Amino acid sequence: MGIVDELDRIGALAREHGLWFHVDAAYGGFFILCDLVRHRFRGIEMSVSVVMNPHKGLHTPFGLGAALIRDGEHLYRSHYYTADYLQDRAFHRQELSPADVSPELTRHFRALRLWLPLKLIGVAPFRAMLSEKLLLTRYAWQRLQSTPGFEVGPEPELSILVFRYVDVEGDVDEFNRKLVEALRRDGTIFLTSTLIDNVYMLRLSILSYRTHIDTIDLAIDVIRREVEKLKIP
Q: How many helices (H) and strands (E) does the chain have?
């Protein structure tokens, strides 16, 4: 649902009990760039490790993920090894090879996919793009909330919202399953489903840099159209 856990409380508990505090911020971590929601990440600085995926929040080429570890020695002790066939390679702890701190010996130059756009255009365009997605998500949630027949989940914290159509006779869950299938067959928009407390909900994730307010209006129009089709006897 795109909800951020109470990182400060979890971090305090982890510190009190000597636990490894890991934050899975693969999808939402880069929203920390946005003033609108930065407060939700309070406590992330207490983490021992964080995962963030630039290919999601920053729209860099696919396959670029980042693991940030407070103490790199943990990575070295976990992944470094030597063997007879590696005895000729130079080894200097001051200049660690990426092969010494990850499972891969041979790897792509993935970091270039992140370094180059940041070098060329800076952080500001990414911050603006992510801020737009936050506002679009709230706009979509408010539109669905005010549309008769729709039930929405909690107000979104980041860029994911859940909803369903409830003004039907019979099984509401089954109607919404059919709605998801109808939307997939139509092909104009793509969304997924989820279960919340065993209740079937539609899940709308708004993150693409090509998504703007006209896209949201189109999506809601398509959803309403498919609802009306399904209600025809």
A: 7, 7
* Cα 53 from Cα 59, distance rounded (Å): 9
Tell me how long the chain is.
233
Domain ranges of the chain: 7-121, 125-231
Confidence tier at 80 by pLDDT (50, 70, 90): confident
Report the alpha-carbon distance of residue 145 to residue 195 in Å, rounded. 19
Tell me the pTM.
Answer: 0.89
The closest of 230, 233, 176, 229 to 204, measured between CA atoms, is 176
Q: Pick from 171, 192, 186, 170: which is nearest to 224 by CA?
A: 186
What is d(CA 80, CA 198) in angstroms, rounded to the nearest whole number? 45
- Binned at pLDDT 50, 70 and 90, residue 201 comes out as very high
Show the tokens assigned to 197: 């407390």
Which fold is adopted by the domain 7-121?
Answer: Aspartate Aminotransferase; domain 2 (3.40.640)
Helix axes 213-231, 124-145, angle to 10 degrees: 30
In this predicted structure, what is the pLDDT of residue 81? 79
The tokens 């399953």 sit on which residue? 177
Averaged pLDDT for residues 6-18: 96
Contact 186, 226 (CB under 8 A): yes
CA distance 176 to 165: 7
125-231 maps to CATH 3.90.1150.10: yes
DSSP state of 162: E
List, in order, residues 6 or more apart from 151 with CB less than 8 Å away. 163, 164, 165, 166
Q: What are phi and psi of 152, to 5 degrees?
A: -110, 155
